[in-house]
Amino acid sequence: MQHIHEVADPGRDSRPNRAQRRRRGAVGVTAAVISASMFAGVGMGTAGAVAPSTVRSSAGCSYASSAEQAKNVQTCHVWSESMQSYVTVKVRPSDQLPGQQEQAVYFLGGIDDGTQQGGIADEYATKYTLVTIVGNGNAWSSNWQELPVDADGNTLTNASGGTYNPQWETFIGEELPAYLDQNFDVDQTGNAIVGLSISGGQAINIALKYPEVFKVAHSISGYYQTDNPIGYVLIPYVLSQRMGVANGLDGMWGNPFRPGNVWADNDLALRIIQAKDNGQIVIVSAGTGIIGSAAEFDELWGLGGPGEVIFGSALEAVSFISAVLLNAVAVVTGAPVRFNYTMGAHTWTHWNANKATEAGMVQDALSEFETGPKVGASTAVTEAATVADVLRTSSGDPAPPVSEVPVEIAAPASASASAEGAAAEGAASEDAAADGGSSVVSDPVEPAGAESSDGAASDGAASEGPGAESSGAESWAPESRAPEGVDSGAGSGDDASDSDASGSGPSEGAASSAGSDSDGGADSADSGSSSD
């Protein structure tokens, strides 16, 4: 099992600490504002420690497009010592004031980086720094024991032109937090990590391995039981068919039938109790697999006809079953996991329909780890409901509340269907139920004497989120597809994504809107493909 340790930062002793940087920033900004007020004859206003619109060019950041600049989304090229390559990271800085806590929400990609998930990031308040990591989904967002190879046995090429050596957990849990601390004043504790589809389970897995960095983990339509024959078949199949990686069975976590493999160390059903010991909050969202609207059906049909309709429904059904099984483990162990079950398939229509509720759950969970005055935290009055309620309701109808504790395994003792939350910027929140069916938010039933976790509520705060781009990784991946009628990213403006010079890689399911890697290279179509 990977050991948890503090981030190594050789240069930290020689640079100002966060408090010093904030004090210096506060003095400089305050002086500038006073001077401007004196000459312009205007009253003083508030100023951030570093303005969100300030480009960290010295840290390898720039605006990839005018659309991203309007959203204060910077494209940064971050060196990974563990992978010996630059990694493209999208950052939307917060608007926190000097001395306020700087929490971040990290977004991992799935197989496809449909720009629709930019709407998910847009739901987060500007008090949070949003960080979208590009390219991690092509290797399951994991550390590999061996180099991945293609069907011909050839090693793959990374974004910097060298041999691709995936060490994503090390980069996300150690190297990136140190970079964000130094260049964006983001704290290296008290943050959230969000993953979609194949990166959903890994978002929780990475959080458990780095519990100080990530206090909140959210998985959307993920998969959680890996150390079993189904996992041994399913994970290598996805890596082979979708990513072009031929040695997923033994290359990533070691051959599961030989000593030295770490499949069990990455099985969340076996490890979820660690969240309780770590004082973390885990949020798991899953659809039933039942198509909840005509828009969902049209999205899947447009991707490949009846085959995609069946496949998109089946993928989400598998995620739903996996979530219910994890729910059962949470019931037995008292792990602090909050579940949100909805009607829908493995589609952007489904995910976007529930984005406000789920972003609110993450923000409410983050508010429990705030160290200063709470700004914009939402509260809600909620009612209990069960998985069965979702199955009984038709698309678009709210799940009926129940008045007593249900008996199903996945049923909560106290739970919440998210109500209206106050927007962090004072705007009214929007319902997340459009096109996506009913939603059930629940905590697991706690055994006697176990510590229960609080229900989460929708924050409803909307702010600008980071832009999406293709992975900037390898040319060995298949081109992804975008559903009809949906924007697919931008390399120049909002309409396409750049990949690096090595070729067009698979676009990732990271929460981001349009944008492109400033490295240049051939344009590739972003995808909203439902199939992960």
Summarize the structure.
28% of the residues lie in helices and 11% in strands. By secondary structure, it is α/β, with parallel strands linked by helices.
- List segments where confidence is low: pLDDT < 50 over at least 5 consecutive residues: 1-48, 113-117, 374-386, 392-438, 445-532
Strand order of the largest sheet: 1-2-3-5-4-6-7-8-9-10
Distance between the termini: 27 Å
Strand content: 5-15%
- What's the β-strand tally? 12
Please state the overall shape, judged from the principal axes of the Cα atoms.
globular
Give Rg in angstroms: 22 Å
- Helix proportion: 25-40%
**Largest beta-sheet details:** 10 strands, mixed
Estimate the mean pLDDT confidence: 73
Order of helices and strands: HEHEEEHEHEHEHHHHEHHEHHHEEE
Number of helices: 14
Task: Specify the structural class.
Answer: alpha/beta
What this model shows, in words?
- The two termini are 27 Å apart.
- The protein is built from 14 helices and twelve strands.
- The strands form two sheets. It has a ten-stranded mixed β-sheet with strand order 1-2-3-5-4-6-7-8-9-10, sandwiched between helices.
- It has 532 residues and is an alpha/beta fold.
